Fold each of these.
Amino acid sequence: MTGGFAPGGIGLVRGGRFFVSVRMIATTPAYCQIRYDLIVFARIVVALAAMSAAFSQQPAPKVPAKIVRTFPHDTQAFTQGLEFSGGALWESTGMVGRSGIRKVQLETGKVLQELRLSPPYFGEGITIVAGKLFQLTWQHQTGLVYEVPSLKFVKQFSYPGEGWGLTNDGKNIYMSDGTAQIRVIDPATQREIRRINVRDGGRPVANLNELEWVRGEIYANIWMTDTIARIRPLDGTVIGYIDCAHLPRDREFADVLNGIAYDPVGRRLIVTGKQWARIYEIAIPNP
């Protein structure tokens, strides 16, 4: 015999050395124990992965908004967006024939400066970056750019679909369109860079409206609800919600919650709604 496996499991390789066959090794107690341990380990890994997937499908937690201070708000303002810039509060308003941009004194509600938007445009969200104010229109696929603080018209730009909310992180602009996606826009060219798919537990979160950049997160009003979603910009994951259902408003005249602004200097967060009589400073949730 010059090589191969013998019927009993012992083989003789070339050179005259004996070895234990694979068939024999596979039936030894040590091998069986190793194989059993590997099977158990694999089952544990699968179970942990399933538990992790199930956990990730749980909805993000919701906390009630805690009122810190209250300020007056013009009940004629159909609020589409709020933003702090240069120590001032800027507000965009909607409705055809009533749309515009205004600079507002937060403590008194006094309008310090205003620019009207001519029909047929329905004004939507605003954001201010690099000395320019960007404004969306609802269904005309037209954005407008102004100088700040003069509000001198600079240019207009186009985008597909509807325009809803805007915010920025100092580098890029983030835009909502009423879907579960947030567009990332280059402010220099107004061109779309990419899109963020917003999800909670694997489910799309649609009707994203007014946006605000708050300490590394994107806050988004969810249209027709009293809820603000806290979104992780990196992957679109909703990490929590702020429930504003208990904020007082005259529901006979006031419309939905809409309007978020963060003051990075004063470290304060304010919210309001369309034609609400008040603006509320609310506590910022923990990261």
Note: Residues 1-26, 49-55 have pLDDT under 50 and may be disordered.
Amino acid sequence: MAEKTSEKKNEELTIDELFEKIDAAAGALEDSEVSLEKSYELYKEGMDLLKLCSEKIDAVEKKVKVINESNNSLEVFDEDEV
């Protein structure tokens, strides 16, 4: 039950805040004192955060495309330019 509360809280974070949490998890993984179990938890948390971040970025890309289409100038977001 606590995990669902945590997921909902993460969904409310901005993309920048998600990147900060991912960075913190990665930093914690670099600590040689971290147990194997804790390393697994941190890895799983980081992967979940990356998935959520990717979903949020996809949503923003779709919004940009819709805005461009509504302005009669279809400019598809080019991820290679990022």
Note: The mean pLDDT is 83.
